[in-house]
What does this fold into?
Amino acid sequence: MGRFFLSVLRRDLTIAARRRGDWLTALFFFVMVSSLFPLGVGPDPELLKLIGPGVLWVAATLASLLSLSRLFEDDHRDGSLEQMVLSPAPVVLLVLGKTLAHWMIYGIPLLLITPVLGMQFNLSADAIGVLVFSLLLGTPILSLLGATGAALTLGLRGGGVLLTLLVLPLYTPALIFGAGAVAGVMAGTGAEAQLSLLGAFFLVSFIVAPWIAAASLGVSLE
Amino acid sequence: MNLYHYASPPNFYKLAGTLVPWAAWSAAILGVCGLYIGFFVAPTDFQQGEAYRIIFIHVPSAWMGMLIYLVMAFWGAIGLAFNARLPFMLMRALAPTGAVLTAVALWTGAVWGKPMWGTWWVWDARLTSTLILLFLYMGTLALWSAIEDTKRSDRAGALLTLIGVVNVPIIMFSVVWWNTLHQGSSIGVTHAPKMAATMMQAVLLMTASAWLYAIAVVLARVRRIIVERERKTEWVQKLLTAEA
It folds into this structure.
């Protein structure tokens, strides 16, 4: 079982390493969306500081969707997904492996670039630290919930847009706690409460979402 | 009476046919009584004047909007667990009504907010969570309309509603983190209602009316769904030739 999980993970990471365009697109999308905001609202540093955490968090949710629509799609099209589901290993492990791969491909580069973007928004070092930490807790939630949406919309016409409609409302708690933690640090009230809640939300998603995603894969492949 | 008797679509079709007029007429009568008490008998509020009277539509529709989502999740779970047809049909019949009542709650809230808070919309906790609830309904409806295969779309919708229902309390809780402008709950089970008895009567009548309205509309809709899905069976053929 562990070997199955690791081989799913290794396979997806290898594919990502060979098709660098895919995950670089999501990363550049994140950078560009964040950089458009100062152009839209003006260069006032105080204002940017205020909206920065929220903007970066929203951009991160949108960037996750960009790559999620293809989480199962490519494997579904060439038939390998069906083979993996038919294998004796539990489907939940397949979902967890692919979700972890998605997070490593999309989440880690995003975490690495976030401090730079934080500086663009005039955030203090403390706030940037909390922002990165909140994204570290929060981006796996986005991958987990998004995997469920991707499994439900597998093979549908306009699946990408539909995925957005299904998943964005489910993302709201992560967005609120994540951006709220940074705002808490900047306001001097501390971030622990929101970060704890974000962690709790991560645990709930980690326990619930893979099962529902696995069931959804079964429904979509029938 | 054996409840499983009504798990079969033809029997449920008949039962729903009997119940629809009863529910519809009682909804209409209770609604007229509730509106009469609400608009003519209940006293003017000392703070909010006459404008508060929209509560008689706002509160029942907001309650029903939330409740129907839970009922949808319930029937979806039953359908998944027992692999039955009827629960899925009920689930699908519920969604449009839930979405409409949620939209009504948002709209009446905006109309109420304008004279009270001086603005159509504020990003307050309950408004926002109701808006997100509407998004959840819309997502479910969009998913259904995108999947042509009935069996797949039923199950996918049920799974989406299940993950939604786990998420709804978390969403509600998370949006409460904003300092809220919405007035606290006036009615609760733990304390006496903070409103005049006649106002309370009107709210209760309107709530009963909203329940019965939802039941009538959902049963009428589920009858259409049953006929549509079972159109190839003998009993529907007979029914249709008898009606034609």
